[in-house]
Write a structure and sequence with these properties.
Layout lengths: L2 E4 L9 H5 L7 E3 L6 E3 L11 H5 L5 E3 L14 H4 L2 H9 L14 H11 L12 E5 L2 H17 L1 H17 L10 E7 L4 H20 L3 E5 H9 L2 H4 L7 E8 L20
Antiparallel strand pairs: 1-4, 2-3, 5-6, 6-8, 7-8
Bound molecules: flavin mononucleotide.
């Protein structure tokens, strides 16, 4: 059981855990006779989202097998920790990188990216996705060829990408992955509506974390398209499915001097 109960020596009875829990009433309740907050999982596993742990002002929630909490100065004052103008610049400057240095990214740096990815929100906190880093250039080369072959099979798809590939196959050795030293694959067993959203969130966390480490990335939709039409693509490297998404990662061999123009969205306030 992840949440084991409440430490009543610490609990001040405020009931914040009741509203912190996304399933109030299922796990946390107030005993009407004693007015005490009670935790009763009725034998079911909670979502392990940890909301009750993060919000309890007295640190009174008892849990196990969930890892450790952490905190930092400014956690309750994010606008001073990372003011909007800085976070806006950081987000707006996030570019797709299509030229990489040959240099390998040390494992301890890649692990930082993977750690950030594991903090991305997932529907009902399922966290069912698995991460695979492929740095073996021969494996990437054969995946790249298989993906191109798969894209060619669909007439409409190939009409869209044919010109692009006629150029990039002359520039890059491993065109689908832009000769990146590493590609991070994220697979999910959840072929349901939020399965794909989870993958997108995870990629975005990974890409932003990579940017803060001086790395470049590019979302690789081709992998996803090819995998959707032919699951053998993922089978060749024993990636689990059925959903598969990838991004390239490495030290950028290109400099970005400015933020590109973006037409402001028309927004309706109702
Ligand atoms: C869902 C998704 C799939 C993408 N797939 C590819 C891809 O297969 N190949 C590629 O070179 N870029 C891919 N991109 C990158 C986009 O082309 C890029 O984000 C867009 O052109 C804007 O450029 P920027 O990322 O530098 O702002 C993808 C982006 C997203 C969000």
């Amino acid at each position: 059981m992840p949440i084991v109960g409440i430490n009543y020596e610490k609990c001040n009875g405020c009931g914040i855990c009741l509203t912190a829990c996304p399933l109030p009433g299922y796990y946390y309740n107030r005993n009407e006779e004693t007015d005490q907050i009670i935790y009763d999982s009725h034998g079911k596993k909670c979502l392990k989202c940890g909301q009750c742990i993060t919000q309890c002002p007295e640190d009174a929630i008892i849990y196990e097998k969930m890892g450790n909490t952490s905190t930092f100065e400014g956690i309750q004052n994010m606008d001073s920790y990372l003011p909007y103008n800085k976070s806006f610049n950081f987000l707006a400057a996030c570019r797709s990188t299509r030229r990489y240095k040959k240099q390998q990214v040390p494992n301890e740096i890649l692990e930082k990216v993977l750690k950030a990815m594991s903090f991305a929100p997932t529907g009902v906190n399922m966290r069912a996705e698995t991460f695979t880093v492929i740095s073996d250039q021969e494996v990437l080369r054969s995946l790249s060829s298989a993906i191109i072959e798969e894209l060619k099979k669909n007439e409409i798809t190939w009409r869209i990408f044919r010109r692009q590939f006629s150029i990039i196959t002359t520039i890059y050795d491993i065109p689908v992955f832009y000769d990146a030293p590493h590609v991070i694959f994220i697979s999910s067993p959840l072929n349901i509506v939020f399965g794909g959203f989870n993958l997108g969130n995870i990629i975005t966390y990974g890409r932003l974390a990579a940017q803060s480490l001086g790395l470049g990335t590019c979302w690789n939709g081709w992998t996803q398209m090819a995998n959707d039409s032919n699951p053998k693509i993922r089978g060749s490297v024993k990636l689990k499915g059925p959903l598969l998404i990838a991004f390239t990662i490495g030290y950028p061999d290109v400099a970005f001097h400015r933020i590109p123009p973006r037409i402001e969205k028309e927004v309706r306030f109702i």
